[in-house]
Design goal:
8 helices, 76% helix
């Protein structure tokens, strides 16, 4: 007979007032004690199981939060490059160079170490592709530096104080068409932004929709426009479309 069955029988005997000899009472007492111990054991195991589940859930949340921080840190750098690439696409790069507004350092991450660490947290594929994106960004920054130096040097040779005249002199004396040089930089800026996104999209759960929830009462028109742009860009990334070309 199982301890719980003995416990049930013992209680029935007790409340029914059935007379028993001392040995029977002893047996009943032992059965009752065993039943209590079984109940305590079951409750202890259930409590431990619940505690383990809670600990595992907390650890999972901490891991997810760490990966989220890594993802959004890398996403911020991607979005910065994407915005810069859009500015390249909409601007006269030679004119920016003459005004001192085309700076190679603008392409480089503000914190190389942090970006590398965050990419590594997203996995080996993200780390590898991200390292290549960082390397290509460094190469692109060097190309921008060469472009700026070439434009400024040729413009200074022109002897003209007129911006249009200086630009025309640059166009007439570059070793290759100025437009091709500019387009190569524009394409390069889009490429490094896309490559960085290719890296961070290797996060295992990246395919789930990542929605931004900006406030509906943004005060500035600029803020509302940028919020819409970020939402559209994020949707294009999730859908697998090339978001930086728009």
């Amino acid at each position: 007979m199982q301890p719980l069955e003995l416990l049930t029988l013992g209680l029935a005997i007790f409340f029914q007032g059935i007379a028993m000899d001392p040995m029977e009472w002893l047996t009943l007492g032992l059965a009752f004690f065993a039943g209590v111990q079984v109940l305590i054991m079951f409750k202890g195991e259930a409590r431990q199981k619940a505690e383990r589940a809670a600990d595992e859930a907390a650890a999972r949340r901490r891991r997810d939060e760490a990966v989220d921080i890594a993802y959004y840190t890398c996403y911020a750098e991607h979005f910065r490059l994407w915005a810069l690439a859009k500015r390249f696409a909409a601007s006269d790069l030679a004119q920016l160079a003459l005004f001192g507004l085309l700076r190679p350092e603008d392409l480089l991450p503000r914190d190389w170490g942090l970006l590398t660490e965050m990419l590594g947290r997203l996995g080996p594929e993200a780390g590898s592709l991200g390292a290549m994106a960082a390397s290509r960004t460094h190469d692109l920054a060097a190309s921008v530096g060469v472009f700026v130096a070439t434009v400024v040097e040729l413009a200074n040779r022109s002897g003209s104080d007129d911006l249009a005249g200086r630009l025309q002199y640059v166009k007439d004396h570059t070793s290759e068409p100025l437009g091709e040089m500019e387009n190569r930089l524009r394409t390069g800026a889009f490429d490094v932004a896309e490559l960085l996104m290719d890296a961070i999209r290797h996060r295992p759960d990246m395919d789930k929709v990542r929605q931004f929830h900006f406030r509906n009462d943004l005060r500035s028109e600029l803020g509302r426009r940028i919020a819409r742009e970020i939402e559209e860009h994020s949707a294009s990334i999730t859908s697998g479309k090339k978001g930086v070309a728009g």
